[in-house]
Amino acid sequence: MDLELQNGAALEVAVNDRHNGFSHGEESDKRSTWRDIVLAYKTLGVVFGGLVTSPLYVYPSMNLNSPTEEDYLGIYSIIFWTLTLIGVVKYVCIALNADDQGEGGTFALYSLLCRHTNIGILPSKRANSMAGPLHPNQSMSDEKQSRLGKFLEQSITARRIVLFIAMLGMCMLIGDGILTPAISVLSAMDGLRGPFPSVHKSAVEAMSAVVLIVLFLLQRFGTSRVSFLFSPIMGAWTFTTPIIGIYSFLRYYPGIFKTLSPHYIVSFFLRKGKAGWQLLGGTVLCITGAEAMFADLGHFNKRSIQITFLFSIYPSLVLTYAGQTAYLIKHLDDHSDGFYKFVPGRVYWPMFIIATLAAIVASQSLISATFSVIKQSVVLDYFPRVKVVHTSQHKEGEVYSPETNYVLMVLCVAVILGFGDGNNIGNAFGVVVILVMLITTILLTLVMIIIWRTPLILAGLYFVPFSILEGAYVSAVFTKLVEGGWFPFAVSIILASIMFGWYYGRQRKLEYEMTNKITLECLGELLERSDIQRVPGLCFFYSNIQDGLTPILGHYMQNMRSLHKVTIFTTLRYLLVAKVPPQERIIIRRFGLDGIYGCMVQYGYADSLSPEEDDFVSQVTNSLRAHIEISSDGLSPVSIEEEISQLEEAKSVGVVHVRGKTRFYIGNETSRFDRILLGFYEFLHSNCRSALPTLAIPLQQRMEIGMLYKA
């Protein structure tokens, strides 16, 4: 009896535990689902601003001459299948799985390739070589390298091409930051001309330029105070436009969805021929902003982006374009104002207000994304140093770059006033949109083959259809180069050249420093020489390399014949976290030589290093004093006291910060490639910001040591 009771009690406990386990699991799943839904709502105002406002300018950007009902049916079929294949299949189902530790975008794909093959090393990724597999079929322990991976590792030309392609994709995103504000705001403001035909187009352009100038001037205050309005505004837009679309196609053309059959696309091209192919330059704009789904992956998560696109953005766009097309079928010549004409008169002004606000939010999203791209490029040492200010202590992505901001403002206003016509801006926009997508297709295919080890047949089933589809779009938009497409292409090529030249120069300098680094043994031999004096004072000697000492040290000692009694070799290390804990901010090493120490300063994006709030020298010396006291096992208290006294005395005498200002010596034996690239790098380096002002070091304490590196 007792045994039965015990067994019954045990069974009851087991059942209860199992039930509680299921309950906890269900609660955890519910919390996770709710978190994803909240994030999905937030993505409306950040990720999809450019994509969901595309109905404002798709039809007005097309060069339609005497269009017919069959033409519009074919165009809508193209739009539907473009949204489905590129938006749903490519990005939602495939590309979002190719993240690099949660980060997305073309440069994340390149970073992923760099961490798994020897085609280049990203500075921010070196320390994280223990990352787990990013795909279920991927194994970090795989020893067998793919043939394509071996080819890329062995061919320096192929590696440079892949790097340049990745940089070009990032620069195209910056070009998107120029054109999205211009075309979105101009298209929204153009709604004034419907009720007021007397308003001249130049007046709309001037008002759009004023709106953008005000928007750019407000960037320095950050977006935290108004960002809570972004998602409601985009939510109102996403909800109202498909309702109008449903009303429109039910009223004008209820059978619009028969165009989901691809044969309407075939008949469209057979009938229109070359003219139909050229119209692809306008239809491609329906997918503008799709790349943001992938690029902004690090700010949200895959599931939230998928939820928003599949259940909100995609059906909203399909219904909105269906309503626009249905209206245009009954009003064949209204395509130049294809959005506002199909809006019913009773809701015209509310929709004008929502459209204008949505265009501003879309512009803000791309401007903020551009700041983030520039900031990450500077941090990774792929772009010349520019000033980056964090306008929020809690959000890494909320940054502001004064130089970038004003360059963007000038270019945006120049686009509006220079091109004027939304048609020409659309031509320029199409180049940016489709080239970024084609670059993503190329890099994602490399990831599939090299990292995921996807069978070539399956990789081909991805690459061939999408390269054909996007290649057709590329060929069409390239015919628009003369009509405005040259502008973003030229901007992107210039930016990519700057990034490639800067990266190449920095890598060559790092290679030289690693090859000619000063070892501790060599430093000890130099200090033992009778002609080398130890002068009073405290010296911070900055170095970019952690394993060894910069060759500038040897150059300095041989020419100055001296070294300060206390010298701290300092390396600055940026971490992609908000704040580094105080106990991890400064890492001290003892080199075993009298008065010689190593120091690594780690800081995050929200840390302040200005002396008004955070005395850099005092922090380092206090950390060094604590390190001496803790790590001096076996030494007598007198020796410890003498070492601390030496440090305090050196600090009281004076502090100097020594930084190498190195240049390449380009001789006759230097290759032509190096002459061009390194000469360009020297031009950039001489015109960018210094690294030391980020620490706000007083000018009188700085010393720059010049040295020539042989190219």
Automatic annotation (TrEMBL):
Transmembrane intervals: 39-60, 72-93, 161-183, 203-221, 228-250, 275-295, 307-327, 347-367, 404-422, 428-452, 459-479, 485-504
Domain K+ potassium transporter integral membrane: 40-521
GO molecular function: potassium ion transmembrane transporter activity
Compartmental location: Membrane
Membrane topology, as annotated: Multi-pass membrane protein
GO cellular component terms listed in the entry, alphabetical order: membrane
Key words of the record: Ion transport, Membrane, Potassium, Potassium transport, Transmembrane, Transmembrane helix, Transport
Residues in K+ potassium transporter C-terminal domain copies: 536-709
Family matches, as InterPro entries: K+_transporter, K_trans_C, K_trans_N
Family from the record: Belongs to the HAK/KUP transporter (TC 2.A.72.3) family.
UniProt function note: Potassium transporter.
Official protein name in the record: Potassium transporter
